[in-house]
Each structure stands twice: as structure tokens, then as C-alpha cells.
Design goal:
Elements (H helix, E strand, L loop, with lengths): L35 E3 L1 H5 L31 E2 L2 E2 L1 E7 L5 E8 L2 E11 L12 E6 L1 H5 L14 E9 L7 E11 L6 E7 L3 E4 L3 E11 L4 E9 L7 E6 L2 E4 L4 E10 L6 E11 L2 E12 L4 E7 L2 E5 L3 E11 L4 E11 L12 E5 L2 E4 L4 E9 L7 E11 L2 E12 L2
Parallel strand pairs: 1-4, 7-9, 11-18, 20-27
Antiparallel strand pairs: 2-3, 4-8, 5-6, 6-7, 8-9, 10-12, 12-16, 13-15, 13-17, 14-16, 17-18, 19-21, 21-25, 22-24, 22-26, 23-25, 26-27
Amino acid sequence: MISTSLLLAYPVSVQGKTVAPGTLPSWNPAVSCTARLTTIEGVIGNQVNANGGSTYAGGGFQPGNPNKRSTSPPCSVNGNATFVEIHGVVYPGYTIEDCAQYPNGSFCDTTANVLDPNCASSDVYLCRIHVEIDQAWKSAGIAPQNPPSTTQLFDIQGHDNDQWHSYSGWELHALTAWRLSSSATPDFSLANSPQPLSVTQGLSSTDTITVTSLDNFAGTVSLTTTIDPAIANTTQVTVNPANVSIAAGGSGTSLMTVQTSQSTPTGSYSITVKGTSGYVWHPLTVTVVISAPPPDFSISAGPASMSLGLGSSGTATITLQSLYNFNSTVNLTTSVAPVDTTASLSLSDPTTSLNPSSITLTPNGTGASTLTVSTSLVTTPGTYTVTITANSGTITHSTTVTVTVTLV
């Protein structure tokens, strides 16, 4: 997986420089195209549709990207660029929508309408374009993070394509990378890796939160988290450290640990990390994909110890429990080993038997076998360990019963 922190780097702005068409490098290492520097108006054109806003026919990059869900779209079609770079836009906020299930979890589009603050048109719809961070790019691990909440302007890169949104015949889909435009206002950004964060029910995983200084910001950023209500009662989230100090031009990290329980529901959820420094704050949405562990089973013995006289026998119940819909046959075997020096001199160790020696478990069901341990008149008194091993395919678990042999 490509680290999303690479996608959120803060490169030097090319504004004010002479740039040859189509020679701007991609900020996303998963995109091999070079970008064409343009504006929102340059993409959508000024041909007005019946609803206000632009038409597809007036767009400056026809025909555009032919497949908005593709994770490797062409750099140009019919000689016209599909990959563009736009500077100094307003990103007023985003919406999470259009979710879909992928083999590695559920992923959603991040959608927004970005504005050109310098647009001269009286029709506001000719001054904005719809953009989307695509669900398929998120599933592939090559999408940028959702942008922070800030009044600063953004530079964006993405593939243009024909997609009707009432007010515009064009959108940038997929939005492949963004950065904050050059600004004199000290600020900071938040990023995380990996994205999404995968967690197995009952276990924990750790995400690295990176706080980066922008425009010579220096100070301490406090991190707090808000958990999706759907998993809040069964999941714990901690950040360490909760306060990250960074120098001007530097960065710092904090580890966010997500601890789930076996009752945490599977699926894709969000955790919002809020970074605050004085009056400046930014949210970061971390996608958490919770999956069920592979089928398994447990084994236990009761009682776990017994005391036997010479020439006698005792029993214990070996219980198997199906976990996570385990559904197969488990084979049981035993071995006996002396524990102390006296027992190691025995001419005849205790003998064992299991009835039954194999158990078929149904999903989330239980099964039991009776372990019988017997001694003879020539068994040396002492302590022995009976190990019961349960095996099914590549899964093996064991439990023990301690046997103390006495003279009477």
C-alpha cells in the first residue's frame, strides 16, 4: 500500500512561474500522468445550460476521462489532457456518500463543490466544479486523505470527466491529490497511515497520526477523537501522545490505538481526529475497517487437576468451543510427561484414553470428550502432566490436566 502521507506533502507552489503545458508532476505517486495547469473555468467552460452553470459541450478538455471509477485512467484522450491541476480554490467542506462493498471493506466517495474565489462570472455555477475522492481509489490505498477544515485555499489535481451535476457538465473524478496553497498564515495539517486502518474483532491496531507545520507554524497541537456511534460502546480509542509539539517547518507523530471487542460489529466506520492549537483546529477522518477473525475453536479441561492412588483412575471433561463459525472435525490426542524427579523414575506412567477421540463442531457450537487417566500398581508416586492436543487442518490448540499420583 502506498503511504497516504506521501499524497499530502506540501510542495513548493508553482504559482507565478512559467510552466510548459502538461509538465507539472503528479503529487500522487500512483498517478504517472503530468498535469495540465488550468482553472475551474478552463475545465467547465462558459457555455450555460438550462439550469444555470456550464454544459459538457463547452468544456475545455473534451472528451475527458472515460471511466471515473478507474484507478489507472488515461493521461489524455484524443490528444486532450484528462489530468489537470488547479490552484487557489475554496474547499468549503465535503460529504461522505455513495458507499460500496469491496473485498477489503466498505468504502465511500468524498464529494465536494470547490469554488474559484477570483471568478468574474455573475453566475456562481460557472465558478465551481464538483470533485470526488473516489471509493475505488480508497480501496486500492492510493487515495488522498479527506482535506482538513480550514479557510486557507487549496491546490488540487485530478482527472476531468463528463458527469452531470445539475449546474455543471464536468467534474474532477478522481481527485487524486491536494495541498494547501502558499499562504502567509501559520497553520498545520493532519494525515494518517495506514488508511484505511484494518482491525480484527477482539484485537487492536495502531494508526500513525502525523502533524505537519505549514507556513512556519510552531506550537503544540492537541489531539482528541470521536468514535462512530455504531461502535462507540464496544471500541476504545487512545492517542499517545495527546499533545504533539512541532517546530516551524517540522512535523511530529502520535499513535492512535483502536481496541475492539469480540462484540464490535464488522464493517467500515469512521473515527474523527481533531487537532487543536489555540483558535486553529482541523479534523481528520480515519476509516476503520473491522473484520471477523478466521474460524477457530477453543479447548479447555475440567477439572484441570486430579489426585489418583495407585491402581485407580479418574476422569476430566475436555470441552471444545467453535469460534467465529468454525465448522469442522477436531481430532484429539494425549501425551503424558513426568513433572518432578520422582515421577521421572516411574516404570509405568499413567495411561490415558479419550472418548470420543474426534468431535465435529457446528458453527458456534460446543462438543465434549471424556478423558480417563489410569494408574497401575507400579506407577511411581509423583506429579504428571497430561497434555490434550486438538487439531483440525492447520489449527492446533492444547490444554493440560495435572495428575498427582499418591500411595493411597
